[in-house]
């Protein structure tokens, strides 16, 4: 792998020009990695969309044969869940667009907006499940063709759980909180399908109230999943990162030759990639070119050591001379 910013350059003007923009690793490598993450996300959406549509179509056939209203609701829910791939697909597509003078960091945060839509859908799922459970508790309904309904519940659970695992796994690997939230949403639908299965079993044992009681329990489970998904998206919207990443970055910077101290370290997610802003201290006896080389090496090591970090802006402060405040003009602005 080649690096366009090695510690020593052959042309001084290029060094000075580079000081005016963030130090950055191989642009082609970063772009390829970001596009590959988006491509994986799109593949997940396509495969999970197909899996959920097949699941819902199988359930629809059994609905036609059994006339189960409960199963009809679960089937419609699965169709709706398949359609949550749409806002995510739009977000991934937008994330591939180049940065502009208005959107200087690109369009990666569109994933967070998609995550809000998904959390809203999970909340709606919980509300719908609670409504149906209370309605059936007040006016119990008989379930016909219990064997077929139970089979459809198993199909619904299996399909949703497979999709949930797939979305959550890839979402965490590429750093997409929205994809993880969508996986959690699929898991809630699997719980809803289980409710159909358990209610059919209760009806077969002569306990028709099993259907609404299980429905209420599933609503509680969906609320827990909603909490996790909402927390995931909230953290992204508030630019939260794992504190362990900050510690790792500080340790990485401390080990860079020429770094005398490490100041503020900030990171934020933009889509499923990280950007960082760090302050380091270098010897005041270094030349501008030497200090620049230390900053470039600091960013170089950060990009290699921090997962999914694509760029870092490294600010180097001199450590002296004694009793000199290099930031005094900024004191009134801080």
TrEMBL record:
Coiled coil: none annotated. Residues 46-238 form the Cation efflux protein transmembrane domain. Belongs to the cation diffusion facilitator (CDF) transporter (TC 2.A.4) family. GO terms for biological process: intracellular zinc ion homeostasis. One of its GO terms (cellular component) is plasma membrane. Gene3D superfamilies: Cation efflux protein transmembrane domain, Cation efflux protein, cytoplasmic domain. It is a multi-pass membrane protein. Residues 243-318 form the Cation efflux protein cytoplasmic domain. Residues 1-33, 314-334 are annotated as: Disordered. It comes from the Bacteria. The lineage of its organism: Bacteria, Bacillati, Actinomycetota, Actinomycetes, Streptosporangiales. InterPro entries: Cation_efflux (IPR002524), Cation_efflux_CTD (IPR027470), Cation_efflux_CTD_sf (IPR036837), Cation_efflux_TM (IPR058533), Cation_efflux_TMD_sf (IPR027469), CDF_Transporter (IPR050291). The keyword Transferase does not apply. Keywords: Cell membrane, Ion transport, Membrane, Transmembrane, Transmembrane helix, Transport. This is Cation diffusion facilitator family transporter. It comes from Nonomuraea endophytica.
């Amino acid at each position: 792998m080649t690096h366009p910013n090695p510690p020593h350059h052959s042309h001084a003007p290029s060094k000075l020009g580079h000081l005016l923009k963030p130090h950055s690793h191989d642009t082609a490598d970063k772009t390829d990695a970001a596009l590959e993450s988006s491509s994986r996300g799109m593949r997940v959406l396509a495969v999970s969309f197909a899996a959920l549509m097949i699941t819902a179509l199988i359930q629809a056939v059994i609905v036609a044969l059994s006339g189960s209203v409960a199963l009809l609701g679960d089937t419609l829910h699965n169709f709706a869940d398949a359609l949550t791939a749409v806002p995510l697909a739009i977000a991934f597509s937008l994330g591939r667009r180049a940065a502009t003078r208005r959107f200087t960091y690109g369009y990666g945060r569109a994933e967070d907006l998609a995550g809000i839509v998904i959390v809203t859908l999970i909340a709606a799922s919980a509300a719908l499940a609670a409504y149906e459970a209370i309605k059936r508790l007040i006016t119990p309904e008989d379930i016909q063709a219990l064997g077929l309904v139970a089979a459809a519940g198993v199909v619904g659970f299996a399909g949703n759980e497979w999709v949930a695992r797939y979305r959550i796994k890839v979402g965490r690997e590429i750093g997409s909180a929205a994809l993880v939230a969508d996986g959690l949403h699929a898991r809630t639908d699997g719980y809803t399908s289980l409710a159909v299965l358990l209610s059919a079993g209760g009806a077969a044992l002569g306990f028709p109230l099993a259907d609404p009681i299980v429905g209420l329990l599933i609503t509680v489970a969906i609320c827990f999943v909603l909490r996790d998904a909402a927390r995931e998206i909230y953290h992204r919207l508030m630019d939260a990162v794992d504190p362990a990443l900050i510690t790792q970055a500080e340790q990485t910077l401390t080990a860079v030759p020429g770094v005398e101290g490490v100041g503020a370290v900030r990171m934020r997610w933009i889509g499923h990639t990280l950007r960082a802003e760090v302050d380091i201290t270098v010897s005041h006896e270094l030349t501008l070119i030497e200090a620049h080389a230390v900053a470039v090496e600091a960013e170089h090591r950060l990009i290699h050591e921090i997962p999914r970090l694509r760029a870092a802006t490294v600010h180097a402060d001199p450590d002296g001379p004694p009793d000199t405040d290099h930031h005094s003009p900024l004191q009134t602005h801080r």
